[in-house]
Design brief:
Elements (H helix, E strand, L loop, with lengths): L15 E3 L6 E11 L2 E7 L4 E6 L3 H18 L7 E9 L2 E9 L4 E2 H5 L5 H19 L2 E2 L8 E4 L4 E4 L6 E2 L25 H16 L10 H10 L2 H5 L1 H8 L6 H16 L17 H43 L1
Antiparallel strand pairs: 1-2, 2-3, 3-4, 4-6, 5-6, 7-9, 8-11, 9-10
């Protein structure tokens, strides 16, 4: 996140923030991140650990609080952190507004992916698109959508949003953005808050996963991004989806999600291999048939024991996978 523009709000571990109106106390543990509208700290309250955002801008803080409250109405606590309270902090340097929200524990998106296969990235992107669809239907756009603002909690693994400072009502100008994930930076669209703005950012998150070092804009536009896609094996699989998202052809998050689901369903379907024709063997003698029967009986018993073990294992594995996917989706 960007360096805070308000160094006077800087807090250190052990500092205490006390609400002027509600008189609740929060002991600062460490800084979680800072941005244009303030700094977020991990703090300890009387009950649990929480996240506290302190700012100098009352309007920005009020706007973010309204977003958090709205997200809670959209889909419980699954989108952004749940809102706890808003208050003012009175100091010798002035009065600073702050709000308290749920501290979401987990791993950053890319840290989570380091120990897992690429398929997990697809599952998390599908979750993200489902949540974005809910947000867009409620009339909002996330705006500053990037890996830094995404966390994976669980089990089961669930993608969560950390900072809603850039969330903007549809139709207005985007409030906050990060250049690499901003379509205006790449010359591929405006900074008007609309679903396609977020979907461009989703495509760039996939690009950033495949190419961890965020490349700079040189020629810009589709020509440069296409070259990156064509030179990466994982991105190339999703080229049709990325092309639509980067060009703003998706009107809703559901459309992009459905295309990704089609990709995975097509990939999972395996065509049966054709059987080779073998010549019929010569008929064995009676003695050979007797020995063969004895050997066959021994093999059958062995296979039955082996098959039974395999079936038990497969049953338990399938049961676990079905349970896990039901929790994820």
């Amino acid at each position: 996140m960007n360096t805070s523009k308000n160094p006077e709000v800087k807090l250190s571990p052990g500092d205490q923030v006390t609400g002027k109106w509600n008189q609740n106390h929060y002991i600062i543990l460490r800084e979680l991140g800072s941005g244009a509208t303030g700094t977020v700290y991990l703090a300890k309250s009387d009950r649990s650990k929480v996240a506290v955002k302190v700012s100098h801008d009352t309007l920005s803080i009020t706007s973010e609080v309204n977003v958090l409250k709205h997200l809670s109405k959209v889909q419980g606590k699954t989108l952004g952190p749940s809102f706890i309270e808003m208050d003012d902090w009175s100091t010798n340097k002035g009065i600073f507004p702050f709000y308290v929200m749920e501290y979401v524990q987990g791993e950053s998106l890319f840290a989570f992916m380091k120990q897992r296969k690429d398929e997990w990235m697809g599952i998390l992107i599908l979750q993200l698109l489902r949540d974005l669809a809910e947000l867009h239907r409620a009339g909002w756009v996330f705006g500053d959508l990037k890996p830094d603002n995404l966390l994976v909690s669980g089990p089961p693994p669930k993608i969560r949003w950390l900072d809603v400072g850039g969330t903007t009502m549809i139709g207005r100008a985007i409030k906050e953005y990060t250049e690499f994930f901003d379509r205006g930076y790449w010359g591929m669209g405006s900074r008007r808050a609309e679903p396609s703005y977020d979907l461009f950012a989703v495509a760039m998150i996939m690009m950033n996963y495949a190419v961890p070092s965020r490349f700079d804009k040189k020629e810009g536009g589709w020509n440069q991004l296409q070259k990156v896609i064509d030179h990466n094996r994982w991105l190339k699989k999703f080229k049709p989806v990325l092309h639509k998202a980067l060009h703003g052809h998706y009107q809703t998050a559901e459309e992009m999600r459905n295309d990704l689901l089609k990709h995975y369903s097509t990939k999972s379907s395996v065509q049966p291999k054709a059987r080779r024709a073998h010549p019929r063997p010569a008929q064995p003698s009676n003695t050979q048939m007797g020995r063969a029967r004895q050997q066959q009986k021994k093999k059958i018993k062995k296979r039955l024991r082996y098959t039974e073990s395999i079936l038990i294992f497969l049953f338990l594995f399938v049961f676990y996978v079905v349970y896990l996917m039901s929790q994820v989706f």
